[in-house]
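Batch manifest, entry 17 of 40.
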Amino acid sequence: MTALLEIRDLDVGYGRVGVLNKVSLDVSRGAIVVLLGGNGAGKTTLLKGISGLLRPSAGSIRLDGAEITGVSPREIVQAGLLHVAEGRALFRAQSVAANLDLGLYGARLSRAQERARYERVYALFPVLKERRSSLAGALSGGQQQMLAIGQALMREPRLLMLDEPSLGLAPIIVDAVLEVVQSLRKDGTTILLVEQMVERALEVADYGYVLQSGRIIGEGDPATLAAGDAIRRAYLGAAAH
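Output type: structure tokens
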């Protein structure tokens, strides 16, 4: 498969504090690629660098062959790359429907196209249709995660980046969210997934990378990663540190 996202020798940090050092990876078109690593490895920093929330100090990011390094977050969204951040950043005092509507901000669509996007999100997450008049802040954690993903899907992204979608959720809800992730892949959405539940992540992924202390220390298909020692080194190293 050809790469939809290509990252080469990327350095990203916060001010003068470097976090990522010469990170290179590819996300193949139509695949689920998982990014694994312990707390503080740089996974969230990488997603922020890709989505324009942090400006890389070196390296290259290409989306479908076009250079997007240093481009504004708004332009990156318009290019079809959506980032669902850790912690489910929603407008909690607004209704479910209003949050979905905000996902369309800046999009130029016909009424029919807008209706089709609502219908797609409601088909994936029926509970959101049932609670479309409820305030986002009144939803359960799992429902809020569904809403955050649904809001991104209103843009019909070519590449969807999910940062810890299972965080704080009951196992049965995690299963439901990951089933949707697999469904999106079948529909043609490319996904870059950051996930702490290693076994579950490898079950849904086509390929994966292991990050430790801002560097890629392993990559491969799920079977290769499960059989190797990169994951063990990444998590035990993070714990020892």
